[in-house]
Backbone:
């Protein structure tokens, strides 16, 4: 188990993500329009998180810089946040929206903690990857040499 997985923010992260979904379900007032907008965002996030997880597992402990990781240092988290955003939109929940803001904050903190660990583990390789790849979403900077794994 990585040290970041034992960090207290991981427990908080799980609670806040769960509260976002529960708050949306309990306090939401869905409409056909909100479902038509929110469900595709939720499904897109599920797809991204699934592809990111599978790619990460295929790397066998090596630094993942290809696939979805070529466009985001944290595509799994981006997918989870998209899923939560889709849920909040689909169910039109003010409580869910408030919890979504908290979820984004805690997710960023968790990702920053993981990045410190990755920098310690992979050193210059991670530093170069970090310098060219957006945190959650964005356009990667041009890579000058080598292929991504």
Residues:
């Amino acid at each position: 188990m990585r040290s970041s997985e034992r960090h207290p923010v991981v427990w908080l992260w799980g609670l806040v993500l769960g509260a976002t979904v529960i708050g949306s379900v309990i306090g939401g007032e869905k409409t056909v329009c909100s479902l038509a907008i929110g469900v595709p965002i939720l499904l897109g996030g599920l797809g991204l998180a699934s592809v990111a997880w599978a790619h990460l597992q295929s790397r066998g402990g090596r630094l993942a810089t290809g696939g979805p990781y070529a466009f985001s240092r944290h595509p799994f988290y981006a997918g989870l946040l998209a899923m939560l955003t889709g849920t909040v939109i689909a169910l039109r929940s003010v409580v869910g929206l408030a919890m979504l803001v908290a979820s984004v904050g805690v997710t960023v903190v968790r990702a920053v903690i993981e990045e410190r660990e990755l920098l310690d583990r992979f050193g210059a390789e991670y530093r170069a990857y970090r310098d060219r790849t957006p945190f959650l979403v964005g356009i990667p900077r041009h890579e000058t040499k080598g292929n991504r794994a």
Notes: Helices lie at 8-27, 32-58, 75-91, 94-122, 124-132.
